[in-house]
């Protein structure tokens, strides 16, 4: 292997102790626990009751080092060799994580071996610092630890049962060959190399964490030197890592016993790591309830996010750039680079709807309460308060396994999403659909920001609400408001109820994001008028949510004109914050309908000959104010003169007489012509 390649691998291995450990969400610094001075070791730090009590660590060696070169304690170059008994599992895990990379580097589609076929761990090491490899690495480690291609079913491994003193006093454990507490199974021997570490810790309460598999490179002891660094990065150090806040698109964990997860999903993407810190882009997202649309009554939205201890959120772009520079990276414009490699984009805390950023963005920030249950203190704005530009997280107060809920600042209802003693920020709007002029149900709302994570990332508490309601189980929170029934009443020209064959069809509309207009969708109902006396002539479409609907009379009542059938549009809207989440029905004005569907498409949404569809405005003629009516007529002389339909008979008579006058005029001219002739 060439010298430059050796250095690349060495750098990759040092990154493995950072990036792979905890799957790119946390890094480590050594605890106060003394490490061995004359043999290779791995130190697992930041042990807590939640992630370590009554659990066992298992170590599976993936590979060893060879051709080691160093200057004192600093590694300058090294090669890595994959253990024969894990080669097949590593190849399969890499293939499952990235089939294209697998075919290019390990085994071609024709079945012929490639460069890394017998040494797949070297492929991982060589790509550790490649842009975007962190997610691939996460998949590989999880697969090896708990997935289809796990190596943990093997019998050759070391095991270490964590003692109470390990997490209560030392907060760390050292894993090395001569540790009497390290049990060796199936011929396992601890040597300098690369290991998969798996914990059997399972969550028994919200305060207990499920740990993720970690791939870690050990230190090296050679030439009477303990080699612990490479380019100022630390070997053999790793924090215990948990799933909280780390799995892509994982619904958030419950924040109190028995409380279901809320609908929001949080994802963390590591952009870069050093031996002590990771630069992470967090995204917090949910979808607008699918039954909401433009023109609804206002809907509210609240997002809460409480970073834990060791997580610093950068809400201001320039402050973020400075922090990024302190990691040894450069920022050109907003492009973050390590050398010539792009690793991500610098940004301030931002909110987007359907991919479009919301500006200006108003966010409230709160400092932790001084005492358990104490009221939080609202801070100023990022412009005025440097503590907000670099917003530092804190651990919540706990008592045993009971989480103490916070008393929030006046007027802020958090409902247990945030716990006492945490710092948190809160984004609120009273008009979700107003955030983006083209927003519609099902659009993704995403809050994103950059954070630097040091030591263990204990996760975040966070919540996402629409109309002050938390939707559950990670699903699209449909029907926040209770669906309603829509009724149209059929009457004759004397305003009496009819029931004799009238048929109405109902169509849903869809929103075209390209044209930014609504379009006629598929038919969702077809009903005949009721023949029951109490509801005679009524057509009732049940269980409708918010949105535009087209109501089309396909058949008039038996014995009535079939050429005057109506078609009109209704809009159902409303907010879940109203009593019982009530939706209401309205008839859009001509101007509103034209804006919503486009002038060329109005005919598909509206055809109301002679105003036979109308909404009773005053309850005259024994009708009910606000109810919707369709008048059926047997001939044009029965068209209403005044009242509900609002069409004067004189207009129709004028048309008839006008036509008669034209005929008479032509006849007169013909007669006159005969005389002249």
TrEMBL record:
Residues 1-32 form the signal peptide. Residues 242-253 have a biased composition (Basic and acidic residues). This is Collagen-binding protein. Pfam families: SpaA. The keyword Membrane applies. NCBIfam families: LPXTG_anchor. Keywords: Collagen, Membrane, Signal, Transmembrane, Transmembrane helix. The lineage of its organism: Bacteria, Bacillati, Actinomycetota, Actinomycetes, Bifidobacteriales. InterPro entries: Ig-like_fold, SpaA_PFL_dom_1. Residues 487-578 form the SpaA-like prealbumin fold domain. Residues 242-261 are annotated as: Disordered. It comes from the Bacteria. The chain crosses the membrane at residues 643-663. The keyword Zinc-finger does not apply. GO terms for biological process: carbohydrate metabolic process.
């Amino acid at each position: 292997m060439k010298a430059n390649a050796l250095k690349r691998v060495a750098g990759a291995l040092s990154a493995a102790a950072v990036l792979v450990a905890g799957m790119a969400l946390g890094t480590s610094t050594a605890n106060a626990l003394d490490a061995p001075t004359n043999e290779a070791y791995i130190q697992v730090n930041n042990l807590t009751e939640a992630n370590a009590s009554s659990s066992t660590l298992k170590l599976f060696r993936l590979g060893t080092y060879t051709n080691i070169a160093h200057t004192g304690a600093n590694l300058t170059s090294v090669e890595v060799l994959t253990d024969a008994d894990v080669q097949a599992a590593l190849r399969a895990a890499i293939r499952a994580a990235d089939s294209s990379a697998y075919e290019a580097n390990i085994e071609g589609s024709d079945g012929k071996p490639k460069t890394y076929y017998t040494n797949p761990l070297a492929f991982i090491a060589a790509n550790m610092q490649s842009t975007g490899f962190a997610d691939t690495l996460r998949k590989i480690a999880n697969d090896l630890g708990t997935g289809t291609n796990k190596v943990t079913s093997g019998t050759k491994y070391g095991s270490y049962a964590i003692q109470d003193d390990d997490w209560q006093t030392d907060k760390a454990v050292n894993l090395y060959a001569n540790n009497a507490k390290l049990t060796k199974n199936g011929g396992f021997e601890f040597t300098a190399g690369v290991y998969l570490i798996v914990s059997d810790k399972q969550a028994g309460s919200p305060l207990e964490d499920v740990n993720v598999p970690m791939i870690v490179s050990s230190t090296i002891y050679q030439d009477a030197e303990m080699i612990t660094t490479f380019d100022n990065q630390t070997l053999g150090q790793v924090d215990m890592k948990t799933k909280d806040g780390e799995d892509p698109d994982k619904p958030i964990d419950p924040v109190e016993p028995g409380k279901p997860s809320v609908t929001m999903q949080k994802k963390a993407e590591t952009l870069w790591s050093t031996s002590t810190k990771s630069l992470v882009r967090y995204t917090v997202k949910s979808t607008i309830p699918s039954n909401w649309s433009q023109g609804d009554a206002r809907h509210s939205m609240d997002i809460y996010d409480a970073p834990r201890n060791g997580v610093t959120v950068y809400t201001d772009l320039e402050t973020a750039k400075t922090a990024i520079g302190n990691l040894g990276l450069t920022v050109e414009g907003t492009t973050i680079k390590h050398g010539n490699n792009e690793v991500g984009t610098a940004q301030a805390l931002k909110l987007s709807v359907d991919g479009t950023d919301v500006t200006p963005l108003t966010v409230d920030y709160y400092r932790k309460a001084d005492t358990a249950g104490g009221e939080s203190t609202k801070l100023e704005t990022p412009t005025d308060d440097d503590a907000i530009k670099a917003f530092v997280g804190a651990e919540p107060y706990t008592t045993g396994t009971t989480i103490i809920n916070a008393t929030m600042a006046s007027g802020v209802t958090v409902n247990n999403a945030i716990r006492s003693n945490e710092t948190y920020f809160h984004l609120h709007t009273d008009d979700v659909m107003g955030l983006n002029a083209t927003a519609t149900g099902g659009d993704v709302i995403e809050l994103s920001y950059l954070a630097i994570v040091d030591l263990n990332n204990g996760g975040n508490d966070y919540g996402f609400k629409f109309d002050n309601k938390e939707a559950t189980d990670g699903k699209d929170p449909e029907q926040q408001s209770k669906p309603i029934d829509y009724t149209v009443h059929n009457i004759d020209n004397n305003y009496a109820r009819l029931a004799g064959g009238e048929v109405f069809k109902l169509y849903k509309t869809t929103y075209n994001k390209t044209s930014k207009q609504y379009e006629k969708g598929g038919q969702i109902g077809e009903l005949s008028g009721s023949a029951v006396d109490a509801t005679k002539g009524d057509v009732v479409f049940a269980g409708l949510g918010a949105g535009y609907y087209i109501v089309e009379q396909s058949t008039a009542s038996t014995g009535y004109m079939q050429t005057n059938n109506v078609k009109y549009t209704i809009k159902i809207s409303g907010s879940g914050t109203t009593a019982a989440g009530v939706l209401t029905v309205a008839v859009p004005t001509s101007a509103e309908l034209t804006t919503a569907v486009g002038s060329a498409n109005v005919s598909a949404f509206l055809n109301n000959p002679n105003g036979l569809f109308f909404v009773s405005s005053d309850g005259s003629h024994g009708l009910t104010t606000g109810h919707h009516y369709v008048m059926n007529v047997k001939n044009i002389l029965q068209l209403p003169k005044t009242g509900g339909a609002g069409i004067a008979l004189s207009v129709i008579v004028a048309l008839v007489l006008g036509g008669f006058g034209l005929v008479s005029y032509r006849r007169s001219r013909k007669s006159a012509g005969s005389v002249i002739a």
